[in-house]
Amino acid sequence: MLVNKKKMASVAEAASGQTPVKGRSQWQDAMGRFKNNKASLVSVIVLSIMILISFLGPALSEWDHETIDWALTGNAAEMGAPSIENGHFFGTDDLGRDLYARVMQGTQISLMVGIIGTIVAVVVGVLYGAVAGYFGGRVDNFMMRFVDILMSIPYMFILIILFVMFGRSVYILFIGLGLFSWMDMARIVRGQTLSLKHKEFIEAAVAAGVSDFTIIIRHIVPNLLGIVVVYTSLMIPNLILLESFISFLGLGIQEPLTSWGALISEGAKTIQYGTLWQLAFPLAFFVTGLFCFFFIGDGLRDAFDPKER
Amino acid sequence: MFSFIVRRTLSSIPTILILILISFALMRLAPGSPFSTERGLPPEVLANLEAKYGLNLPWYEQIYTYLRGIIFEFDFGPSFKYKDRSVNDILAQGFPVTLTYGIWSFVVAVAVGIPLGIAAAVKHNTKFDYAAVGFSIGAQVLPNFVMAPILVIIFTLWLNWLPGGGWNGGQWQYLIMPIIALSTSYMASIARITRSSMLEVLHSNFIRTAKAKGLPTSSIILRHALKPALLPVISYLGPAFVYMITGSVIIDIYFSTGGMGQFFVDAALNRDYSLLMGVTIVFGVMTILFNAIVDITYAWLDPKIRL
Question: What's the pTM value of the predicted model, to 2 decimals?
Fold first, then answer.
């Protein structure tokens, strides 16, 4: 006998003890690659800490973001510097308001604007792009021509006009920013949909009599999620930048609420008096936050599309 | 090619009309009026004011008059807040300023960004490459409104080399900081795009052939690799131009250059509709025409585009 029976038996025993190999989805693969990316992982941790601080931090301070410390008003340059004793950890602004509380509050607003604005933009962009790509032909032509027109307009000016006209509430800011940022997403999604719609599973769904709308929601959109996640993560920092830009001009968020852009603007106006902390703390949060978002976005892109490195 | 140029130029006309209609509609839909004050004007005065500016006419007549004024006489009407000045006056004063440093920033960004990207790609995975990549990542989080105060701290407050603002007829000392602040972030973007597309081109077959033939590196890069590598960069120039124009608002405000941005923000805060629309339309038309130029250049450079 050429086959060693004893060995065979032990192999059979070992094999029967093993569970069948589990298939890995695209998501598990991507998450595995993402976890190997040090910069992205560190960014996730730093960002989580930042979010925690911005929501829990105000409890540590006796001051809130709108109360004026009258003892320091008008004297920010000499007495408003950061100190532990009087409870102003980051110092005060020119009016004597606590900068620590204001930075925490601004961080909350900026992150919220970035995330909610992005959700608005993603929902609009994905649906628009999927519909245009799925129906194709004249509908597609018309819809994408409209996107081209929107993209060639310097929408910042229209956006500012919108804010001025319809009041500058936070909600207008969320929705306005989202409604002016969905065009890129629509283009990407349309391109992907065009290549998806001739796949067999879509044909099968059509043959089974599924309605167009259900096909888009149930079959097209879930298959786009990888690329949508990547561009979503890159859109958040861009919306934060956009909001900061508008708030820097004094046309965005309104007092007593504040945001990174508004705080940087206030700090930048007073640098000649030597109150550098008024610029430094908001700027440090802004730069760190954006860095984290950009690194996470890059990490996700590499994770979902490893050949494009 | 010629018919493509004509078609592309003509196709920007409806875009311009849509831009004008959108901004006009926003103005008219808005609650409140430019003449509403804290105390409120007597109705007769308000009626007279509205008659003077043609606001009592039906909307289609207003827009007809407005469009006719712009197209045939290049007249944007009177400013609502600066009583003695027309929008044309204000545009003529602020526009040259913005255009001066705007064009310079654009030139600097392209002239530094593209060579930087090419050099980084050619010296792939060297210290120079890492430095260039580091710069382009870092500059992502340094938009113009962050660069401007940082530059002022360094060059005005600490070193005392440059004036912290003003224009002074566009002397070079007054130009440096606006140009650096405005160009840094998209110089980095241009460098990043050039680098990645150049890397892709350098790994393609025709470049390997050129190397195998024994061509010198400089001629491979300049004669063969440059043109295909620049295509993505050129398509980025359109958006870059939009960033530059919107960024100029920040520069005008922060450095008090007296350019268009200052007037735009004042107009936005004062609800000076005609001035707001004038600025929006002039900037919009510039952007749309620039996009047309970019498209035409792209079609001219890329043989794969069907004309």
Answer: 0.81
